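Reagents: none. Just compute today. Putative membrane protein.
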Amino acid sequence: MNLAPLTQASLAIQIHTVAALLVICLTVLIFTRPRGSRAHRQLGWLWVTTMLGVAVSSFWITHGGPVFGYSWIHLLSVYVIGGIVYALWQIRRGRVAQHRGMMLGMVWGGLVIAGAFTLIPGRIMHAVLIGG
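Predicted 3D structure written out:
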């Protein structure tokens, strides 16, 4: 592992990366706690706040995409922001299945799929984790 590409990256990328790593850790913790428990709710609020940080910080990361410097991957950030609002609305209404489905969708779309794209050659996290 070589942290130099990350330490030399912009502050927005560093914030985005740290927040994403924290969300990954929080996701694991939340999945190990009983659903609906006090710990689940407290970790959930921290997860939501941090995931919003990941999504919002992405809007300061632009590299010549087709629309004002943004690429299609920024649509995941819009999805996450809307998804968080929807998931919170659903759990407040007692719709646990819809809440769970949206939260899992954000984990898969906003973390797993987006995270996989960071490993493409030429990307900073590829250079950090794989080299090159």
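Residues 4-129 form one domain.
Action item: order primers for follow-up constructs.
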